[in-house]
Please model this.
Amino acid sequence: MNVLIYSLAQVLVAVSVLFVWVFRQANITKEFQSFGLGDLTRSMVGAFKIALATLLLVGLWFPVLIFASSVLMGLMMVAAQFFHARAGSPWVRRLPSLVLLGLCVLLACR
Model:
C-alpha cells in the first residue's frame, strides 16, 4: 500500500509540473512577469522543473533518483511560494505549489 501511495505522489507531482510547463506556458509567462522575473529565468526554471519531473517518473524504475529530485523540486516549490507571497497572490494561486511541496516532502521523507 505504501509503495502505491509513494508512486502516485511521484506521478502526481511529475505530471502536474509537466502539464503546467508544457501546456500552460501563457500562464507561466504572465506569472513570471508579475514576479518581475525575466524570460531567461523563466526558461531556466522551466527546464530545471521539466528535468526534475522526468527524474521523478524515471524514479518509478530507479528509486535512487527519488530523494534528490523530490528535494530539489520541493525547493522549487518553496521558491514559488516565496514569489507568490512577494507578489501578493491570493491563496488560490499559491495552493497548487503548496500541495506539490507537501508531496515532495512526503517523497523525500520516504
Q: What stands out?
A: Residues 2-108 form one domain. The chain has a mean pLDDT of 96. The chain has one domain: 2-108. Residues 2-23 form the longest helix (22 residues).
